[in-house]
């Protein structure tokens, strides 16, 4: 197959990679800079002397900040990154949503829910070799949509189920032996390390034109920037990024969202439970949806900074808005149309209202619906506009002065403005 000069995806043009491109989504990587509570994870690790590769990139490459998609959750942002467009186009607006037509609350990990092609799939269909490695399997099916799965075309698997990977479904087998690590526990730093280790193995054996690596935010939920455990995690990451750089890859790194502390001085979660507030105001016919919900809630208890509310009666909207807007810790309450316009969301997949908490608060449904027994450290979480800033890092400088970065512009900047020799 003759490779093209460029590929157009969702009305955006991307130049063909002249060297292997590795795009990394570091889950929950709170950045430094304006709006942060202090130093960011990467900045603190660089200052501690444990990230020499990214320290060099900060001096000689592109070291910037961008805004992620709101709600600042994993699924909508990973899919925005790999499609280059916001959720109003690709349709994935949470980890979890309410299907009104079927009257069911479901995970947003079904490929049928994706409404736009991915950059990964379109390049693969045009002849590029593509590799995708995710920490959790919940993302693997969505990120693999449209890929021609086979060892010499496209490989797509997760750390979580690495031992289940096979040629037919994932384009690779014997992953555990090839990577040289056992399958990690889903609640561990090693789940993300397996992603990077696999990336190095694939770069050596397959040498994909485009590789996408997506980690988990287990460490960021439990440890603040600069903490010894956090610094050790980022030192591990830097080691693998340096290896990929030495193998001739262009490195582009961003995040799906930031992370903030969500607890009081006693270490207790600052939770706003929405259901009792609405009932106390005289409202009974409603449904609260928390889009942070996924199968892995031990480290955050399904508590995040973004919630949607479905109302049975349109006439209840004004009372609901007035009730919740006056609650301490609530940043804003928006109608569906306001939220869709402000955040680029699909209007058929969010509720009648959107509630966003302030930077150190989270939203819940009711206390009895949240199991917080797994929170062994003070709560850290995400979901609102306070977790919107993320890193935007490319191992080379850009050939133009661009502004208003979004995390889903990372492929465009890397392919269109930062390609060239890796020397």
Describe this structure in words.
The protein is α/β, with parallel strands linked by helices. It has two domains: 6-259 and 384-417, 3-Layer(aba) Sandwich (Alkaline Phosphatase, subunit A), CATH 3.40.720.10; 271-381, 2-Layer Sandwich (Gyrase A, domain 2), CATH 3.30.1360. Helices cover 30% and strands 20% of the residues. It contains 15 helices and 19 strands. Strands 4-19-10-3-9-7-8 form a seven-stranded mixed β-sheet, with helices on both faces. Helix 6 (137-143) links the parallel strand 7 and strand 8 (154-158). The longest helix has 19 residues, at 228-246. The radius of gyration is 21 Å and the shape is globular. It starts with 5 loop residues before the first strand and ends in a 6-residue tail after the last helix. The mean pLDDT is 93.
Brief description of this entry?
The chain is built from 15 helices and 19 strands.
Q: In CATH's first tier, which class of the largest domain applies?
A: Alpha Beta
Measured by DSSP, the beta-strand proportion falls in 15-25%
* Count of discrete structural domains: 2
CATH third-level topology of the largest domain: Alkaline Phosphatase, subunit A
Q: What's the number of extended β-strand segments?
A: 19
Q: Extract low-pLDDT stretches.
A: none
How confident is the prediction overall: mean pLDDT? 93
How far the N terminus sits from the C terminus, by CA atoms, comes to 29 Å
How are the strands of the biggest sheet laid out side by side?
4-19-10-3-9-7-8
CATH architecture group name of the largest domain: 3-Layer(aba) Sandwich
Sheet with most strands: 7 strands, mixed
Quaternary form: single chain
Which word captures the global form? Answer: globular
